[in-house]
């Protein structure tokens, strides 16, 4: 068997050189491919850019049998197929609606090395198709972006769930691949795909060349000018920037008015949305609108005459316009743009014709640009999984790159927005994910360590030295007095409010709500006037992060209460003596 193994190893290596031009496998790749060639199921959890695709692309070339790859995005499949074809590999894809009978029959008779397929299509193909392919030769079934199978994942897709039906038809290795999976999701993938004793390969998630930092903005996100100034700093070196907007301004009413006007007038009209002018027009096939002055692509209007389904991220356009005004070449990318405009926008970014891409998270999968220097999140992301993936798009070339996250506290109240129609376990999962992202924002310790631990990686005991908290320049001082005031006040108010009530009480408010609850009679009332409301919130964030306070989500509302750790602190206070508690001082806090 030793002779045979060397034989296979050699064959793997010649295949790698011949088709891909690389001289060696990365350590995990080799192991996984060997396992799969031996007929074993595999779960591959490796960071984006670590080379997962080769794990399913090499076996078909070594065995001469087809590899079937389930992939969620048509555009991604098209890219992959094109680049494989350029390497002389026989690759094709079968979409959900595509009725290409040539591809179908060629696929069935095993003409392809690699066949990409959408999950919908994979589940609806006939038994006959699979049994024909089994006869001509199929070496594996790969499920890319396998976390989509789990309701606990950050991107659940119900079509993925039905893939288990294929297991009964195909006695071949199944490979699940994903860039992000927590323990729960990993278990879900294994059981959903009915994997038998899978080989689990987990790469490190550490991206040492990425700097992680978070900036909090008291009431609202920074003005566009500030953002643009920040961006200019990173534009000095060659490379590009992505700004992800997760913040959405509610434009439903305005869009409703627009569609109404449109229906009444039925000809070209202009309209203003949050200070930006757009022009509507009608082409033979559809109704659209465009930003006046060009750029930003064509956005479709629903034909049915109501505004449901139109969600326009105005923030995106605002940032885009501010950049243009400053002479920075920017592109825009979001889900409501026409396919053609999206493609064009993507292309100009890849070709370095624009330096900054202002985008929603729709801009993402399949971006393999090496020289992205900075990814800015404008608003808190919906989960750490998506944050890790989106921010991880910078620094592919291994050079130092920067991931900034901007948030305001109100971002954390967006659970409803993210939940949409989701119910039950999915709703729970969404809220849990958002809570984790919030925790990351509020963190006062090493961010990398936190991220790695979140993904189940025991990181080195030392801090990374490459995140804002590690390189901290932030001031610190003993804040036990303020901590005492805030926690006592939260306790006195019964722990059934959000942060605003106890802070109002400390600041001596005589609002109707304060009086009704007789909180103006508390001895603490008015003792915290010297701190602004934002200062108190910044303090509370640190106490939540350190576990002295506990924030709970009830229906739509968040309540804050003192945790057992906080109670312990309070009970150790005797007379004038306060146990010291050193916390960060924000710029606005008085000494
Ligand atoms: P993933 O799917 O994990 O995001 P890819 O499969 O797209 O990663 O690979 C990322 C990049 O690494 C690609 O440009 C790929 O060509 C390159 N790559 C993969 N394996 C190797 C290797 N053994 N040697 C050199 N480069 C590799
Ligand atoms: Zn760190």
From TrEMBL:
Domain Helicase C-terminal: from-to ranges: 230-438
Coiled-coil spans in chain:
none
Q: What class of enzyme is it?
A: isomerase
Q: What is its EC number?
A: 5.6.2.4
| Reactions accelerated catalytically | Couples ATP hydrolysis with the unwinding of duplex DNA by translocating in the 3'-5' direction
Domain (Helicase ATP-binding) ranges: 33-199
Look up the record and report any one GO term of the cellular component aspect.
nucleus
**Which keywords annotate this record?**
ATP-binding, Helicase, Hydrolase, Nucleotide-binding
Q: Which GO terms describe its molecular function?
A: 3'-5' DNA helicase activity; ATP binding; four-way junction helicase activity; hydrolase activity; nucleic acid binding
Which GO BP terms sit in this record? Answer: DNA replication; double-strand break repair via homologous recombination
The family classification in the record reads: Belongs to the helicase family. RecQ subfamily.
Identify this protein by name: DNA 3'-5' helicase
Species of the source: Coptis chinensis
Lineage of producing organism: Eukaryota, Viridiplantae, Streptophyta, Embryophyta, Tracheophyta
| Range of the intact protein held here | 60 to 650 of 1012
């Amino acid at each position: 068997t030793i002779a045979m193994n060397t034989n296979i190893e050699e064959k793997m290596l010649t295949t790698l050189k011949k088709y891909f031009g690389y001289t060696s496998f990365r350590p995990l790749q080799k192991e996984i491919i060997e396992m799969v060639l031996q007929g074993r199921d595999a779960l591959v959890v490796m960071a984006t850019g670590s080379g997962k695709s080769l794990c399913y692309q090499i076996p078909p070339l070594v065995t001469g049998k087809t590899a079937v790859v389930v992939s969620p995005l048509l555009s991604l499949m098209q890219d992959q197929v094109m680049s494989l074809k350029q390497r002389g590999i026989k690759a094709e894809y079968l979409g959900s609606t595509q009725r290409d009978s040539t591809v179908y029959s060629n696929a069935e008779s095993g003409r392809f090395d690699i066949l990409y397929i959408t999950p919908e299509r994979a589940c609806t193909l006939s038994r006959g198709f699979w049994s024909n392919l089994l006869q001509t030769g199929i070496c594996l079934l790969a499920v890319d972006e396998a976390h989509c199978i789990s309701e606990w994942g950050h991107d659940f897709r119900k079509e993925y769930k039905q893939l288990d039906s294929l297991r009964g038809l195909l006695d071949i290795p199944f490979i699940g691949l994903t860039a992000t999976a927590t323990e729960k999701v990993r278990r879900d993938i294994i059981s959903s795909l009915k994997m038998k004793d899978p080989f689990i390969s987990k790469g490190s998630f550490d991206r040492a060349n990425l700097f992680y930092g978070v900036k909090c903005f008291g009431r609202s996100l920074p003005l566009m000018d500030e953002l643009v100034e920040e961006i200019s700093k990173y534009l000095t070196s060659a490379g590009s920037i992505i700004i992800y907007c997760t913040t959405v301004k509610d434009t439903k009413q305005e869009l409703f008015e627009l569609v109404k006007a449109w229906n009444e007038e039925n000809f070209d009209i202009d309209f203003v949305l949050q200070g930006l002018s757009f022009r509507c027009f009608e082409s033979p096939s559809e109704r659209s609108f465009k930003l006046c002055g060009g750029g930003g692509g064509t956005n479709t209007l629903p034909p049915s005459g109501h505004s449901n389904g139109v969600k326009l991220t105005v923030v995106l356009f605002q940032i885009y316009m501010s950049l243009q005004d400053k002479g920075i070449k920017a592109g825009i990318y979001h889900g409501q743009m026409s396919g053609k405009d999206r493609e064009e926008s993507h292309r100009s970014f890849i070709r370095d014709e624009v330096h900054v891409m202002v985008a929603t998270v729709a801009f993402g999968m399949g971006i393999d640009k090496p020289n992205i220097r900075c990814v800015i999140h404008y608003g808190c992301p919906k989960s750490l999984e998506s944050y890790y993936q989106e921010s991880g798009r910078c620094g592919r070339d291994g050079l130092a790159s920067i991931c900034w996250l901007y948030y305001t506290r109100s971002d954390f109240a967006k659970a409803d927005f993210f939940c949409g129609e989701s119910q039950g376990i999915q709703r729970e999962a969404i809220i849990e994910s958002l809570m984790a992202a919030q925790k990351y924002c509020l963190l006062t310790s090493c961010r990398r360590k936190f991220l790695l631990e979140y993904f189940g990686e025991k990181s080195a005991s030392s801090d990374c030295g490459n995140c804002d908290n590690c390189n901290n320049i932030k001031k610190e001082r003993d804040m036990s007095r303020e901590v005492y005031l805030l926690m006592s006040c939260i306790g006195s108010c019964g722990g059934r409010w959000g942060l605003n009530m106890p802070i109002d009480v400390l600041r001596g408010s005589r609002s109707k709500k304060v009086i009704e609850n007789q909180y103006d009679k508390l001895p603490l009332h008015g003792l915290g006037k010297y701190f602004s409301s934002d200062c108190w919130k910044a303090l509370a964030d640190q106490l939540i992060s350190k576990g002295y306070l506990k924030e709970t989500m009830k229906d739509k509302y968040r309540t804050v209460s003192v945790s057992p750790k906080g109670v312990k602190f309070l009970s150790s206070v005797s007379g004038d003596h306060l146990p010291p508690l050193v916390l960060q001082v924000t710029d606005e806090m008085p000494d």
